[in-house]
Amino acid sequence: MRPLLVVIIAYLVGSIPFGYLIVRSKVGADIRETGSGGTGATNVSRRAGKTAGVLTLLLDALKGSAAVLLARVITGPNAGWLITAAAIAVIVGHIFPVWLSFRGGKGVATGVGVFLVLAPIALLCAGVLFVAIVAATRYVSLGSMVAAATIPLFVWLQAVFVVPVADLRPLLTATIVGAALIIFAHRGNVGRLAHGTESQI
Question: Which domain holds residue 103?
Fold first, then answer.
């Protein structure tokens, strides 16, 4: 019963649609009808301004961290696979929120919150790569996908060359599945990038 409870709580935390609520309260609009249709920080910034976007970013990241930390409290720090399940569930909740007919954001900020707790060094390395790509191309979506895809690699490199881990499988699974979900959520962006119609910052 406890494992199921952990996953459900993580999913429901991830489902809190901060971007939707912020835009609705600030400009009275449905963020899903703007730009990419996502509820994340980038789309919120386009509709309600940079301050709203930054607030959305922080809150979405916070719920990712909160879900993982709560899972640790409930299950204990050594319950690797349950924490992995919670990490995946909170990202799923953000991308497919039950409150918004399963139409949410891209999972990037929530993933940042998750991996800030689980793999901060790998996240930092991916963050540097993100900044470099966005600075060079001005495509946030491209930077986000590449950064997400490289986090599993950085986790593996850290475990091999820096800090050995007794069982890397739970963390590696969380990063791989998390990256796959984020890239899947960007499938529309991939099409626009291919056709040269993707919005730049």
Answer: 2-195
CB–CB of 55/61 below 8 Å?
Answer: no
Q: Say if 88 falls within a structural domain.
A: yes
In a domain, 200, yes or no: no
Which of 172, 182, 164, 185 lies closest to 84, judged by CA? 172
CB 73 within 8 A of CB 88: no
**From CA 9, how far away is CA 21, in angstroms rounded?**
20
What number of other Cβ atoms are within 10 A of residue 114's Cβ? 32
> What is the biggest distance separating any 2 CA atoms in the chain, rounded to whole angstroms?
51
- Please tell me the distance from the alpha carbon of residue 152 to that of residue 165, in angstroms, as a whole number: 14
Assessment of whether the complete model's pTM goes beyond 0.90:
yes
CB-based burial, 156-177: b 16+ in 10 Å, e otherwise: bebbeeeeebeebebbbbbbbb
Dump strand ranges (E) for 27-177.
Answer: none
pLDDT for res 122: 96
| pLDDT tens digits, 88-111 | 999 999 999 999 989 999 999 999
- Residue 69 has φ and ψ, to the nearest 5°, of -65, -40
Residue 111 φ then ψ, to 5°: -65, -40
**159-165, long-range: CB within 8 Å, 24+ apart, which pairs?**
162/121
